[in-house]
Amino acid sequence: MSPVSHKPGGQPDGGQFAAAAHADPAIGLRGDLHVDREAATYFADQVESIQLEGLKGSLSGRGNVLRFTSVDGRSFDIQQDGHLDGDGTSGWAIDNHDCTDSDDPAYGLRIESRTDNLGEDLAGLIFESQTTEAFTLNQGSDDYVFRAVSVSSNDDGGGVLNADFVDVESGDDLSVYYDVDRQKLSVYYDGSELTSDKDRDEVLKDLTDCSDLDAPEGSPSGRMAWHMERSIRVLAAKDDSPEWIHQYRTAGLTWEDRK
Known about the structure:
24% of the residues lie in helices and 29% in strands.
């Protein structure tokens, strides 16, 4: 891909803020999305893509940046990444604007997108940042550096939480998966699944011991399963979490219980 001038996709030539080809753009509330005049005028195609995703919040245009602010105050910046794909479609980058602290687990979250997928990709990045915040072990431990956490659905529509860490001493990867419906914990170290309780407990002990949450007594594997399930249930309690994950909402556990 070749560098191009930064001009919002779908706009005519004549400068970054050339007159848009969309007459009389609607300004104000579009469903659950509030759009300011600059966003509606200079980012019309991008606004439409985000609107179609049904996201709640507001969109504002500031120079060459389109900013999405969620109903709970999270901000995400959307701007061209300076590239075109093979058919001339402009590339866009979505960044977690709120997170500027390099020690924050959500620092550096970014998705590269295209206009047609912008709404879906923005929703994905919002969900990724929420998942990171809900995960109880997102600070890692003395032995392991936290890398990332994600939630996906399995073939039966059930939730699977995946957390990735790096061994500080060896540099090897540690990946933990938890299938909520099956209550199954799977642990992979350096690409190989650990099938014995002894091996799983050995690699998970430092992580589970570092948390100050009052986890039930038991083996490191059992405590890890508790952390994974609690995290996905806290995530499900958030008002704007994806509908499919609402099946894991639990009485007495709210988004405010994240830690």
